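Journal club prep — side note

Before the paper discussion, L.F. wants everyone to see what a predicted structure for a comparable chain looks like in token form. Sequence:
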Amino acid sequence: MKFSPYSLGHAPVGLPIWPAILEDMGYPQHARAAKVFGVGVRTVRRWNHLVLE
């Protein structure tokens, strides 16, 4: 396998700073956080599930 620093195999499994980001934003609703980061609401819910639960 050819080494690629951008392959999915080397991606982090979690978002360790996500709780800090949410705190700085004042714990916004999922839709607002999704809009700010340019992702879908389901993605924000998944991030919350991975880190906060």
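L.F.'s comment for the group: Residues 41-52 form the longest helix (12 residues). Keep this in mind when we get to the figures.
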